[in-house]
Fold this sequence. Notes:
- The complex is a heterotrimer of chains A (414), B (190) and C (353).
- Chain A has 414 residues and is an alpha/beta fold.
- Chain A has 2 domains: 2-244, Rossmann fold (3-Layer(aba) Sandwich), CATH 3.40.50; 253-381, 3-Layer(aba) Sandwich (Rossmann fold), CATH 3.40.50.920.
- Chain A has helices at 8-18, 33-44, 59-71, 82-97, 122-126, 140-157, 182-188, 215-244, 270-283, 301-308, 329-336, 358-369, 384-395, 406-411, and strands at 2-7, 23-26, 52-55, 76-80, 103-108, 133-136, 161-166, 174-179, 205-206, 252-255, 262-266, 288-293, 295-297, 313-318, 343-348, 377-379, 404-405.
- In chain A, helix 1 packs parallel to helix 6 (140-157) and helix 6 crosses helix 8.
- The longest helix of chain A is centred in the middle third of the chain and has 30 residues, at 215-244.
- In chain C, strands 2-1-3-4-6-5-7-8 form an 8-stranded mixed sheet, with helices on both faces.
- In chain C, helix 1 crosses helix 7 (221-233) and helix 3 (101-119) packs parallel to helix 5 (141-150).
- The two termini of chain C are 29 Å apart.
- The model of chain C is unreliable at 9-13 (pLDDT under 50).
- Chains in contact: A-B, A-C.
- Strand 9 (205-206) of chain A pairs parallel with strand 2 of chain C, so a sheet runs across the interface.
Amino acid sequence: MSTEQIEGSLGVAKAVALCHPGVVCAYPISPQTHIVENLGKFVKGGALKNCDYLNVESEFAAISVSIGSSAGGLRTYTATASQGLLFMTEGIYNASGLGLPIVMTVASRAIGGPINIWNDHSDSLSQRDSGWLQLFCESNQDALDTHIMAFKIAETVGLPVMVCMDGFVLTHAFERLELPTQEQVDAFLPEYEPREYLTPKDPVSLGSMVGPEAFTEVRFLQQRKMAKAVHVIESVTEEYRKITGHHSGGLLDCYKCDDADIKLIIMGSTVGTAKDEVDRMRKAGIKVGIISLKAFRPFPYEALRKAIGDTKLVVCVERAFSFGGRGIICPEVKRAMEGTSCEVKTAIAGLGGRAIFGTTINGIVKAALDGKFKDEMTWFDIDSRVLNSYTKDGEGVTFPEGPLSDSQLKASVN
Amino acid sequence: MLQIRLHGRGGQGAVTTAEMLSLSAFLEGHFAQAFPSFGSERTGAPVVAYARIDDQEVRTHEPIQEPDVVLVQDRTLLSVVDVFSGLSPKGYAIINTAEAPEQVVPELCKKLPKGHVLTVPATDFAIKAMKMNKPGAPMLASLAAATGVLKLESVQKSFQTRYPGKVGDANAEAAALSYNYLKEQMKEGK
Amino acid sequence: MLEKIKFYQTGSNTVGNRLLNPSMRAIQASVDRPNGLTSGHRACQGCGEALGARYAIDAAMRATGGQIMVVNATGCLEVFSTPYPESAWRLPWMHSLFGNAAAVGSGLAAAAQIRAQKAGETSVPRVIAQGGDGGTTDIGMGCLSGMFDRNDDVLYICYDNQAYMNTGVQRSSATPPSARTATTMPIGEKPGADWGKGKDVPLIAMAHGIPYVATATVADLRDLEAKVTKAMSFHGARYIQILVPCPLGWGLASNVTVTAARLAIETGFYPIFEAEYGKVTSVRKIRQKQPVTNFLKIQRRYAHLLKKNADPNTVARLQAMCDQNIRDFGLLEGTDPVAVPAAIQAYERAETI
């Protein structure tokens, strides 16, 4: 085990290198660039052997080359974000349909227009239904470890994995990271032995057309892999933690949840900021806990129901939403809590890089405890001055200061 | 936890300075974190970077609004950006200039405790030792001299780790010039 | 009525095959032919693409001792060969998407190389990526150019039938001017596909400076086999574009696929040549020059040009297009190609034809 003070992206690159991928595809898009730049250095400098590093012409090509190399029987890695992830979309669905265990970092970033390079979760969550596992990371240590686990999970389940880490906030943060040794990783993650791959030694056809007579069954079997993935994530995490002693990965993680009157469900780097604030609030007598949601796909319904327990108030801090709908995490939590009297709300915050401070978390908790979240969804950190500069003159509509509820939004168009 | 905010201009290495600050703290056994204010900044544009030092894991990732220390790598920013916004009343401010603090930021000198506003000609030291306007190492050395949160040796080692060879050594030399300068100034009670 | 064309292969290629020295016989003449694309698939009667693919893939199989893996773009060839749970491919084959065959091929070639390297094997399986003209010249162009750029060890074969046949005959950038497709109907003042549009992918491929580029047709299958064999003797990115007439899309009787291809050669409509490292190295000469009308009149996609009230200038322009090809590529015996042939669309755009 070595401890280093390095950038998150370098930590992830080192973790990926420890897993000995056979192919790494690189196409530049902020904020994932530093990861593949570092991997390129490892390959060119000879530190990462038996690995082909391809500079491709687009994200569409990056995922396509990855599909080819994974189908050719190699452990395969690539990374992307935002528009790049969308440009890959067709290949994303194809990779999961073909059951290829590709591991890809999504350095989460907002989707344009308007173009925005900063962090939120609208890119990764847009691929919710793509058939990939989606694992979110709360810190760079978590990201580093999750990448190593992701290869094992992907290869055990036979599905690709997106490791979602907050762009810039994590990728560009310089922090203390503990890297497992090569021996530890080798013991945990054996050489990749594909169950099926393209080779003249045993010719197979991959990716044939499936008609109505079998398509439903193909999809059922894919969903079955997802169900299996829930258990695999748990067992792989347990094994990894035993080897490294790192408390990373898992389906979800609870922080000071035991006696909490209110629980926040958060994905990504906001968890760390919120933990500090929870400590401060607890000193002031507010009993609040955090559930860090690590696996979004497969969604850990049972584990979450258990983690929420008999808490009556849950707020999902969401960094993306569904246009014309509401939050994306919240309905999943409601499904998990079906049949209970638990109230589940969405606080939208941190879109397009708007910083989530400890004070933001504090405000969300207090508003929830004061019963201010009447609607399912509230735009928590919205700036009415910016809104009014647009709506006041044009439509004669002004919004009050502070959080805006869904019903306030709806009332403004009546 | 000690929170430090660095202001500079694109190309002067403010982000690297923050990273080296965290590396210096790490080398002394602390937990530390550094990150830039993210954006598509271009050369010459105002840049902000942050650093935290603590004796336990740094979990938060929020930008620093209430810093304990503000480092200003380029004095031309003083009239452009509210660089001392949220600075703790007991905090420190270090500005890269040869002029005396009272001449550069008289208001701030009144607000902060005596000796907490410091100026250092970091660019001069950088150019003398490195022939480049990269005032990061002398700025961090001045922080070390003023507050004692870091040792000069750690600052020097951080740059030598990042830039093995001539560049690292030149940074270390610039750091020493700055450190000794400030120690001398402090001795004289300036 | 079909005009009789004299059969020129006498004693050499097809008819005389069984009289040849066995080593010179067509691959398909052998009982142990690789049969990479086996019979029983669901292509249309007279499918030019199925014919071209069978010859091309078998030639590559023979050239590499069976060490071939194929990536197929979405399209007719993919659909008719692999209706789940069956596959007509007797070699490692995969289909991913419409526009990414070249990139998947790059990944597969990298995998083959690294796997062989790790296993200490000297023989590395070779990769062919293939698709129709839509999957190549349109939606697959980015990935194709990227594969050329990196000079990845992939042979890309484009089966060019000059439109999107799988989706119901829509125009692609390989559709020739005036041709009828479902999206370029023979109506209005300018019936059929527009003039001055389209692109010449073999020339684009050559502009990448890749080791080998060739065009071929299903009318000259020995030539096709020879080109595939030659392509496999190179490493790096290679491109072969094969004209494969489509009875459905062209409105051909299903027994004249090969005739249509032959007329495309003999009229100068489709120049057949080879290029190495960006320079033309050989040209398949016209054996008996035919007027373009002989090519047009067997296809319903050009029927509107030959109607009584049709504008005669259009046929004249098509003839001029063929003549320009003949000049640029030196398609007649005793003539030489120009140093840098221009895409035929250049003449259309400059309105010189």
